[in-house]
Structure formats: structure tokens, C-alpha cells
Specification:
The mean pLDDT is about 85. By secondary structure, the chain is an alpha+beta fold. About 30% of the residues lie in helices and about 10% in strands. It is elongated, with a radius of gyration of 17 Å.
């Protein structure tokens, strides 16, 4: 984005994903590493927000953060693309004692 290169948005940016900040992932990993090994029982945890945001809305956050727009090549949906993906943070909240982060904001972006 910083290089101002054109972006390709499939499904015209209308796919939704459950993005989470790198800081929230690092906090969750540190918390998990400090747990008694039996508490996790080798299970998987969703490190997510429980909220989804469209790729188009994510692009708007980057434009807000950097103060400029980039060219967008809006393309049709690709075969096999998942239109909506959203995780359930309940298990990670319960085991790690973390509050699920809210919706991604421009402050969370790298």
C-alpha cells in the first residue's frame, strides 16, 4: 500500500474476513506460553475478534491511516472463494482470559 501500487480486489472487495491485529496475536501467544501445559490439552484456539470486515472496508482503513488512495482493479469473485469468514473467540477467551479485541481500526494496521 505504501508504494501506491494498484490493488486487485476480488469479488469487488465484498469478501468478509475476521482480521485481528498482530499485537493481539502476540499477547495471546505470550499468554498461551505461560499456561500450564495441561490446560490447553493440545487443542486449537481461534485467535480472532468474532467480527468480520469487508476487504473494501479494510482498504478504507488503510486510506484513512495513510491519507491517500490507491488505484483498485475491481475483479469478479474467484471460483472457490469464501465470501464470509468469521471466527469464534470463545475458547481462547475462556482459556487465556483475554478480552476479544474489537473491530479492526486504522490504529491496528502495520
Amino acid at each position: 500500500f505504501e508504494n501506491r501500487l494498484a490493488l486487485q480486489l476480488f469479488n469487488h472487495g465484498n469478501n468478509f474476513r475476521d482480521f485481528i491485529s498482530v499485537q493481539a496475536i502476540a499477547e495471546a501467544c505470550a499468554k498461551a506460553a505461560s499456561l500450564d501445559s495441561g490446560k490447553l490439552e493440545g487443542g486449537a484456539l481461534n485467535l480472532c475478534t468474532g467480527n468480520s470486515i469487508s476487504i473494501q472496508a479494510l482498504l478504507s482503513l488503510y486510506e484513512e491511516k495513510f491519507g491517500f488512495s490507491v488505484a483498485v482493479n475491481s475483479l469478479p469473485k474467484r471460483a472457490g472463494d469464501i465470501e464470509h469468514s468469521c471466527g469464534d473467540p470463545a475458547k481462547s477467551v475462556s482459556l487465556l482470559g483475554l478480552r476479544p479485541p474489537g473491530l479492526l481500526t486504522s490504529k491496528d494496521l502495520p
